[in-house]
Amino acid sequence: MIGNKQIITIKGTREGLSLHMDDACSFEELLKELEEKLAANRIDSADQIVGVHIQLGNRYLEKEQEELLCRMITSKQRLRIESVHSEVITKQAAIEWKEEAEVKAVSRVVRSGQVLEVKGDLLLLGDVNPGGCVTATGNIFVMGNLLGIAHAGKDGNTDAVIAASYMNPTQLRIASYISRAPDHETDGVYMECGHIDDEQQKIIIDRLQAVVRKRPGISSFERRMLNG
Amino acid sequence: MGEAIVITSGKGGVGKTTTSANLGTALALMEKKVCLIDTDIGLRNLDVVMGLENRIIYDIIDVIIGRCALKQALIKDKRFDHLYLLPAAQTSDKSDLTTEGMEKIVAELKPEFDYIIIDCPAGIEQGYKNAVAGADKAIVVTTPEKPSVRDADRIIGLLEQEDIEPPKLIVNRIRNHMVEDGDMLEVDEIVQVLSIDLLGIVADDEQVIKASNHGEPVAFQPNTKASIAYRNIARRILGESVPLMSFEDQKGMFSRLKKLFSKSK
Question: A130 vs B195: CB contact, 8 Å cut-off?
Answer without folding.
Answer: no
